[in-house]
Every structure is written in structure tokens, then in C-alpha cells.
Amino acid sequence: MISPPAAASPSLPASLPESPRWPDNAFRWLTLGAALTIVALIVVVGWELYAGSRLSLAKFGLGFLFSSEWNPVTEQFGALPFIFGTLVSSVLAILIAVPLGVATALFLTEMAPLKMRQPVIMAIEMLAAVPSVIYGLWGVFVMIPWLRDHLFQWLKHTLGFLPLFQGPIYGVSMLAGGIIVAIMILPIVTSVSREILRSVPNLQREAAYALGATHWEVIRIAVLSYAKRGIFGAAILGLGRALGETMAVTMVIGNSPHIKASLFAPGYSLASVIANEFSEAVTDNYLSALFELALVLLVVTILVNVVAQLMLRTFAGSGSGKVH
Description:
Order of helices and strands: HHHEEHHHHHHHHH
Shape: globular
Largest sheet: 2 strands, antiparallel
Strand order of the largest sheet: 1-2
Radius of gyration: 27 Å
Structural class: mainly alpha
Number of strands: 2
Oligomer: single chain
């Protein structure tokens, strides 16, 4: 019996032509240059602010951060009221914007009809495109009168036993500044939270439903638990925007360099005082003090982001995102 001939194996070339490596190397160096450019920009900005604030640093030292006096006539400057106003207004904005933004994102991803989602998303994107000064004008002529005559009166009547809601009501106040910033950062918190919630695998939801969970339990256990790192990141992005907000806050916060316990009292923020008084700085000490305020704002922003990264690592190590 004659066996059939073995199938001829395809012949392989002795050596494949080597592809050029320069495109990979060029792309690697290009991306490295882009990353280093960002670092260099931060360093250059920080150096310029430090150079401009040397006179103030030499004269006031660390006392600049803890002094409450701001008197251009006597050239005595302190940043404490502005640091206080920046942190309080930003925290108020986060406390208001994050629950609203996450709730809106949950509605759009988990409950809203398909026909309703796109119009609401477009409205949120349009809200993000409104200039800051428009928010400020709206705050002065619409929001402040309503807050003064209605919400602030109700808060004082209901929660007046707390120091936060005591004292005369002016309308322009720390609370008004926090509310206007909350409105401004609401679009970014909502948009980022929505994208995070959309990235939750459907397997998470299906597993929870298979265990007999209700719709609310699926959202709480499967969706929010999985996405909490991303939602925290959305809150930090909103906080970064809130810390540096200028025009709208300047128009509604009251611009008073005093520290008061009441949220009804006027306040001042770091960005607002720089915008208001930079053109009026006629002496070297005055100008240097404003540069130091800008340096403080930069340092505060960097510290907030560093703390946020550390907290994100904590979340990453806690095993979040698993359905128990």
C-alpha cells in the first residue's frame, strides 16, 4: 500500500525584515516631552510666584499665613481671612454640588427614560459653558435677593441656635459664595460621575439582581460601591475648580477680610482679593503680598490634590467595587 505523500509545509523565510524602530522611539520621546512640559509649567509658575513674593516672605515670614490684618495703608498684610474664606466657600460648594451631581448622574444612568437622557445631558453641558461673570450677575440680581428674603430667613428661624446661622443677614455672604460655586462645579461633578457610573459592568447589576436585590439595593451595593473611587475623583475635580473660582465669588461673597463664624457674614477668598486689588497695588510690599497670596493658593491646590491621591490609594486598597 502506497502511503500518500506528506503535505508540504509552507516554507518560512530565513529571517523576517526588521521593522524600523525610530517611530516607536520618536513617539516615546514625544509623549515624554509632553509630560515634562506640564511639570515644567507648574515649576515655572511656582518660581515666578515665589520670585514675586520674596519681599513679602522676607518681611512677614510664616506670620503671613496666620495674621488676620490686611491694611494696605500701613502695609500690614495677612492671609488668614482669605485662606479661611477660600476653604469654607469651597467646602460648602462640595457639600452642595456632590450629592446633587451624583444623584443627577444616577438618575441619568439608572432610571431616566432614554428619550429624556440626551436633553438633560445637553442642558448640563450648556451649564458648564456659561461664563463665570454671567453666574456672578445672575447671583447679584436674582440669587442674592431670593436668598436674603427667603432661604436665609428660613435657615435663621429653623437653625438659628447654631452659630453658623446667627447674625444679621446681608445677602452677600460666605454661604452665597458657596452656593454660586456649587452651581458652577455641578456640571463637571455630574458629567464625570455619569461617565464613571456608565463604566460599571452590567455583570455587577445582574449579580445583585440574581441574589434578589431590589433596584435601590442594586444601585447602593453594586453600582455606588463599585464606582466610589471615581465619584471621589469627580469631587476632587470639582474642589479644584472651586478653589480657584474668581469672578462669580467676588460678586456675591461680600469681600470682607474678616473671619466670622456665621455663614450669613461676608467673607473673602484668595482668588477674589487678587482680582480685586492687583490693579490697586502701588507699593512693592502690597504687590508682593498679592503674589504671596497667589503662591498660597497654588500650594493649597497642590496639597488638596496630593491628599486626594493618597485617599484614592486608600480606596484602591480597600477592595471597593466587589458585590458582597
